[in-house]
From TrEMBL:
The keyword Signal applies. InterPro entries: Cyt_c-like_dom, Cyt_c-like_dom_sf, Cytochrome_c-type_DH. GO terms for molecular function: electron transfer activity; heme binding; metal ion binding. Residues 181-272 form the Cytochrome c domain. Residues 1-26 form the signal peptide. It comes from Flavobacterium aquariorum. PANTHER family: BLL4482 PROTEIN (PTHR35008:SF4), BLL4482 PROTEIN-RELATED (PTHR35008). It comes from the Bacteria. PROSITE patterns: CYTC. Keywords: Heme, Iron, Metal-binding, Signal. The keyword Glycosyltransferase does not apply. This is Cytochrome C class I. Gene3D superfamilies: Cytochrome c-like domain.
Length: 329
């Protein structure tokens, strides 16, 4: 018993230190991470056996087999423009730690979003992902599918604390090197660490009946759009650190260094050598609400588009701090 308590404190310390110097997380309510050392798991056998439970189950299915239901050839409607599944990024249907975890989302909306400069409901936020990473058209707010997504998010939110951040609620943090991220170094690292699954052309690999991917695409016309947060180099690096290479990372135990994750994200998202659908992007009406690694002008600071894309990020963060603004990334 004692041993567990000691480990708990050791785990909690660095997390608390990180949190106090960087409360950056874009648009969510500021919360302290709990000192509880364990990861939260959900037990799907506890989904109730009633109408609500049916909707929760369908919502979970939609997270896992999105394209099968609502993809370009979806059996329930043709909404998505590609065959990625939500779980490709929000792994384990949104419950994996450090993988854009969605277990607090139901509690955190409606929420102000800098992107639109307005308050969005959770349903509208779901449609942002349907439209950007999935190049789709929005689900009707009263469709069975949207209701199912929301039912599922409500149900998984029961397992998490309401007044503190649980372990893995946010992605792992990245320490910024003094130098800019390098797509050239990233390309070499990509060949070594990523191409064996995602392909040399980042094209991914379909499953047998082509209803989805075994390895989802990283660029090309079926990958996420440049307006997606996954296209931001810092945002992607934080996620890569916690999740890729898929076969080398276990929860909370990164394989890539922070600098490698940034270099690889810089290469994957280098649109001078890669193509993506819909290069048009939706801009932040208030540039002060723009994430510093969202590399689309105009900017409120003197740094170039290239530096917003690749860094070095420290000078940008310091500049923002000096102005009394909070740098989001
Ligand atoms: C290519 C990766 C990718 C795919 C695929 C994807 N998302 Fe997202 N999603 C993101 C990223 C990145 C964010 C922003 C996370 C952040 O800022 O920490 C996000 C945020 C969200 C949020 C807001 C979470 C919060 O609490 O603020 C919801 C809800 C969401 N996604 C639902 C979905 C659903 C439902 C699908 C499938 C239809 C989906 N996403 C597909 C990458 C993806
Ligand atoms: C062993 C195979 C494997 C390797 C190696 C691997 N991945 Fe993945 N990757 C996956 C799988 C599988 C998923 C989908 C995860 C899921 O659905 O739970 C994924 C998802 C992704 C996604 C989110 C979905 C998308 O297509 O946008 C990105 C980004 C990504 N990987 C990047 C990388 C990068 C960069 C590397 C190298 C550092 C890498 N992966 C190495 C198997 C792999």
């Amino acid at each position: 018993m004692k041993k567990i308590v000691v480990i708990g404190i050791l785990f909690a310390l660095p997390i608390m230190i990180f949190n106090s110097c960087n409360s950056s997380s874009a648009n969510t309510v500021a919360k302290e991470e709990t000192k509880d050392e364990s990861y939260i798991t959900i037990d799907t056998s506890k989904i109730p056996n009633d109408k609500f439970g049916e909707s929760v189950r369908y919502g979970r299915e939609l997270m896992l087999r999105t394209a099968y239901y609502i993809g370009p050839n979806g059996i329930k409607g043709k909404y998505l423009g590609n065959k990625m599944n939500c779980t490709n990024c929000h792994q384990d249907a949104g419950t994996k730690p450090y993988a854009f975890n969605l277990m607090s989302s139901h509690d955190n909306y409606p929420q102000y979003r800098g992107r639109e400069d307005k308050v969005l409901t959770l349903a509208e936020r779901v449609n942002n992902c349907v439209m950007r990473p999935h190049s789709g058209k929005p689900l009707p707010l009263d469709s069975d599918e949207m209701v199912a997504f929301l039912s599922y998010f409500k149900w998984i939110s029961k397992f998490v604390p309401k007044d503190s951040l649980f372990k893995g609620a946010k992605n792992l943090k990245i320490e910024f090197p003094a130098v800019a991220a390098s797509p050239e170094r990233g390309k070499v690292l990509f060949t070594e660490n990523c191409a064996r699954c995602h392909g040399n052309e980042g094209e991914g690999k379909f499953n047998e009946d082509k209803s989805g991917y075994v390895y989802p695409p990283l660029w090309g016309k079926y990958a996420y759009q440049p307006g997606s947060s996954m296209h931001r180099v810092i945002k992607q690096a934080q996620w890569l650190k916690g999740n890729m290479p898929f076969d080398k990372v276990t929860v909370g135990k990164p394989y890539l260094t922070d600098a490698q994750a940034l270099d690889i994200a810089a290469y994957v998202n280098d649109d001078s050598v890669h193509t993506r659908p819909n290069p048009k992007t939706l801009d932040y009406p208030d540039p002060k609400a723009k994430a510093i690694d969202y590399a689309h002008a105009p900017f409120i600071d003197p740094f170039s588009e290239k530096q917003h894309r690749l860094g070095p990020f420290k000078p940008i963060i310091e500049y923002w701090k000096k102005q009394g603004w909070e740098a989001i990334y």
